[in-house]
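Students often ask what a holo structure prediction actually looks like on paper. The answer is less mysterious than it sounds. You provide the chain, you provide the ligand, and the output is a string of discrete structure tokens encoding the 3D arrangement of the protein together with oxa(dethia)-CoA.
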Amino acid sequence: MMNSRITAIGTYVPQRKLTNADLEGMVDTSHEWIVQRTGIHERRIAERDEFTSDLCISAVRNLIFRYNKTIEDVDFIIVCTTTPDFPFPTVSCLIQAHFHIQSAGAIDISAACAGFSYGLIMAHSLIASGLHKKVLVIAGETLSKITDYSDRTTCILFGDAAGAVLVEADDQYEGFVSHHVGSEGKGGIHIYRTGLANKLGDQKLLDNSCIVQNGREVFRWVMRTIPDAIHHMMNNSSQTLNDVDWFIPHSANMRLIEPLCEKLEFPLERTLHSLVEFGNTSSSTIPLSLDQGIRSGKISSGDHALLYGFGAGLVHAGVLVRLQLDSVVNEPLPL
Ligand code: UT7
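The corresponding structure tokens follow.
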């Protein structure tokens, strides 16, 4: 079986900030409530004419610039998103056309906040099988376009961002150690984009489709499911949680990450998240946190990182990776 590893990473967030103070002027909320209940201080919001593919393109450009990578020979593109520019064509085809990538497979996958983990697992599988050699995995979201800014229970949470990694065949280095996936469709009603609501007789129109969430129920499901899933994943690997240098859970809420760490008996200091500055950016939170860990110098070559995504579906996926990215050629500009 061919090994693979993540060789390069790039990220992008839109310039425009939406702070808690801004939200105080939009709905009945307060900076204190938001920080105490979520840990979020601000998020980035795409311009009206800026779409998921634009964010993904910028993240890939950032990757190319920093690692001096050639991507015309990428042979598979996976875009993880719940907010594609169009139902079709896919964002992955827009990426392929933009970068003049030759003869690549291109597919979007929809697994909400678990999307990036699923994308990595698929990339690793395509390479391990010997079918492909160089896979571009991009997670990109413009959640602001489907957020109801009159609903204080959701509009305080979400932001826009994109992250991209290259996964390449490597006959020496075992960059993927283990993975775990799962789903619980009967809980799908607890977080959905209206459209499903239309099917269920809700009054909201598909054209104005937006995110609806019962945060309490999602919270309960995460606490009931994810610690066991992580133990299951570690039991199937050669490593233990003590060998994990960095835990990178989906950045949904600080009040979720803390009890997760407690239940796993994993030190919070070795956990990376992107909540404070960027909020919940769904599939993009994990690559954003990973990149922040790399940019800040916290993550070293050879470190084990446990990435675990969970969310709408309900669906979850995790992967234990051993990180050894290529050398950075150009220092990244700050986000
Ligand atoms: O990325 C997908 C995965 N999603 C998640 O993992 C979400 C997990 N859940 C959560 O993050 C939290 O449940 C939330 C942050 C969404 C909500 O926090 P909570 O502590 O569960 O609050 P709640 O929904 O139980 O609401 C408590 C109170 C309610 O008032 P009453 O009924 O007690 O009078 C809400 O109306 O807080 C009120 N409230 C707010 N107050 C001020 C809800 N949103 C706000 C707000 N500002 N923005």
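The chain has eleven helices and 13 strands.
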